[in-house]
Amino acid sequence: MPPRKTSKPNGESKRLVTVRDIAAELGIHFTTVAEALRDSPRVKDTTKKRVKDAAERMGYKAEPMLSALSTYRARKQNPVIQGILVWINGFDSKDFFSTGSGFYPECYLGAQKRCSELGYKLEPFWMSEPGMTPARASKILQDRKASGVIVGPMPLGFEELELDWDSLCSVRIGYSLKKYDLTTIIADQFGNARLLHEKLLNFGFQRIGFSCPRILDHRTNNHWLGGYLAAQESLPSDQRLAPFVEQDLNHDPSKFLSWVKSQRPDVIMIGGGLRYYQLLLENGYSVPGEICVVSLHADSHGESLAGISQNGKNVGIVAVDHLVGIIHGFKVGLETRPKTVTILGEWKDCSSFVPPSAKD
């Protein structure tokens, strides 16, 4: 096709020349021009020369933001291997994060996804392997030449991990290993509790209860309980309920059942698994008829309960983003001013959940 000549009105010469202008000048498609300008191997050399000659003649200048976007897309499609990031697993199972479902595996999947986009390889590191010690772990990490370390959520009771932190770039997911000054990426448990409370009010519930073992609320830095109490402050005094915070996990149902009778909740926000839900069923309560139960971490219960999904994939993605930032800033060792980054969850519906308006 012969080049199409275009006439330009007076004053138009000041307008920036675009890829489409060059395409119109040469009589070819604008995507071919764009590919030629970035030296794509899919365009013939003769066409590249025609395009570049026309671009120079017409005064074409690449838009910086578009050039940056093009570079980003190219890197995303063909990422260069930047290094190894290590995911610390403190659970008894070597495959704890790579199998199953729920918030913890979702965090790992999110981190894997972000690593592949940025050109990093994510390698799990099992701290519970027989014979593993902190000293040996530090030596292995050094030999692997790991660029950075993500401390995954840890099991209850896993409070210390004496790695050679001074030689590592690191972040943690959750409030495990509180002894160490690490940037923390975490589900926004305080915000999630308030979000869930507000959602229940909007559904029409009047008496919103809270039930959780103390050890598990402590694991959230008491943010579940704090969010609930803050939300309750907005209610009339006759609608405020005393929370049930179980002192231990002795599985004695009497205290919980006494609390239900005295507080008369029409819905209970629960933390710590399905225990309270099952206690209600075992003791003759109709759920969700007589009482509704919603979870502060519904993504840990499959399809059993409605409640808050903690957005684990996004937590994992943000953890990698922050770790890569630490690596690029050469911030090796424990931080003097560690940050806490919170990720808000979202409502998760479930067929077993029936709001008051649906019962009428």
CA radius of gyration: 28 Å
Helix content: 25-40%
The outline comes out as globular
CATH superfamily of the largest domain: Response regulator
Secondary structure tally: strands: 12
Classify the fold: give the CATH topology of the largest domain.
Rossmann fold
Domain tally: 3
Mean pLDDT over the residues:
86
Distance between the termini: 71 Å
> Helix tally?
13
Notable characteristics:
3 domains; six-stranded parallel β-sheet; globular; disordered N terminus; 12 strands; Rossmann fold; alpha/beta; about 350 residues; 434 Repressor (Amino-terminal Domain); six-stranded mixed β-sheet
Short synopsis of the structure:
The chain has 360 residues and is an alpha/beta fold. Helix content is 39%, strand content 15%. The chain has helices at 19-26, 30-37, 45-58, 64-77, 103-118, 134-144, 189-203, 214-219, 223-232, 254-263, 275-282, 312-328, 356-359, and strands at 83-89, 120-126, 148-151, 170-173, 183-187, 208-213, 244-246, 267-270, 292-295, 306-309, 340-343, 346-348.
